[in-house]
Amino acid sequence: MNCRIVRLASLLLLVAAAIASRREVEAQTSTTPYPSMAPVDQYLMDRDAEIAMARTAAPDSISHDATILVLGSHGYEKAVEGKNGFVCIVDRSWSSSFDAPEFWNPKIRGPVCVNPAAARSVLPATYLRAELALAGVPKAQIADRLKAAYAKKELPALEPAAMSYMLSKEAYLTDSPITKDGAHCLAHLMFYTPIIDGATWGADLPKSPVHLIFSGGPEPFEVFISLVGRWSDGSDAPVH
After folding, report:
1. Exposed/middle/buried for 116, CB within 10 Å: 0-12, 13-18, 19+?
2. What is the pLDDT of residues 110-163, one digit of tens each?
């Protein structure tokens, strides 16, 4: 009888431990829906579809003659040679802040067209992020590698007047709706600056259309956005 009781007690302890472990995993999943990188193919797109999406980042007057890059299994690859100095790509989730809960969200697609200054001085960090992520480097080590690359001057310093367009209605920037009508994207311009006080731009003040969304981590610059009321095709876009 005693042996049966001991075996029953041991079984109950194992069941309790399994339930507790499952609840812990479920709790972590609910707070961190993307705790690690998904299979690489979930971040990739059909090549022609990605070229077309990249072009939607800016008006045709800009993107038509821009260089277009697409994401391959090891990083970004040139798909179309441009002639106006602009470069258009589709950002993935690992371009976000390192503390972002959707850092590994494979659904994220952020068409962006950067001007020549940003193409030379901002995109190299984007390329490195992608290469490291696709190589399976953990998030913390990606941040460390970026810091080291800047410290060794392997990545260029920010150039003045660097900016970009994100005016695509096809963008998917987050799982959470951003606007009142439930859209997952906003038409906006991005401006890259040295580390400064956001108040210099009037950022994040009541009714200000300017917001500071990225500040020196680990890239040594800040990113301000300004909402605009039109998509790249000229149609009206929500601003709140």
Report:
1. middle
2. 999 999 999 999 999 999 999 999 999 999 999 999 999 999 999 999 999 999
Judge contact between 77 and 100, C-beta under 8 A.
no
d(CA 143, CA 216): 11
Report d(CA 111, CA 190) in Å as an integer. 12
Contact in structure between 122 and 157 (CB atoms under 8 Å): no
Q: What does the angle CA 159 – CA 133 – CA 151 come to, to the nearest 5 degrees? A: 40
Q: Determine the 3-state secondary structure of 70 from DSSP.
A: strand
Q: What residue spans define the domains of the chain?
A: 1-31, 40-227
Helix-then-strand count for the chain, H and E:
6, 8
Each residue's pLDDT tens digit, 152-185: 999 999 999 999 999 999 999 999 888 777 778 9
**Which pTM value belongs to this model?**
0.85
Q: Which amino acid is at 107?
A: K
Among candidate residues 231, 216, 222, the one with its CA nearest the CA of residue 185: 231
Contacts of 30 (CB under 8 A, 6+ apart): none
- Is residue 59 reached through a cis peptide bond, with omega within 30 degrees of 0 on the bond before it? no
- At 50, phi and psi to the nearest 5? -70, -40
Residue with tokens 């990249």: 54
Residue type, 189: L
Q: Which residues pair with 70 in a beta bridge?
A: 77
- Measured in whole angstroms, the distance separating CA 189 from the mean position of its chain's CA atoms is 15
CB 146 within 8 A of CB 128: yes
